[in-house]
# Entry
Amino acid sequence: MKKIKLSSTIYEYDSIEEIDKADKELLLQAKKACLSAYAPYSKYYVGAATLLENGKIFTGNNQENIATPSGMCAERVAVFSASSHYPETPIKAIAITSKAKDFIVDTPVTPCGACRQVLAEYETKFNSNIKLILMGETGKILIINSIKDILPLMFHADKLKK
# Structure
């Protein structure tokens, strides 16, 4: 038997004022996107904003559907929108935030497993890290330099080779 140890680096900030200007702007775009999410069932609104290498920003928000799981997470809406417009341009960063109708979201929202795998696909496609900027409605902010830090044993296409 061999023991394998995995480690990740996550940066934690106490307020939005502590992060750099570009990350703050992307997070503010995600907060704006959060306001127009369609979440009549969960009343949990998520916004995401992607920054492409060419400087373009694409936003998305969660889109629920009564026929679960027909809806879509904010992260995938933003990433797929960016990729449909600029399919050969790497994603540099994604900011994700949330709010709820019935409570204050005071911890950073993190991508679900499906969204993590989608982000991993784009990191692999472009061989380029995607920075994650995560925040709730209030509270601390987490910045992670690569999806590999929160999905260390991700599935890769080479696993499909015979």
In short: The chain has one domain: 11-150.
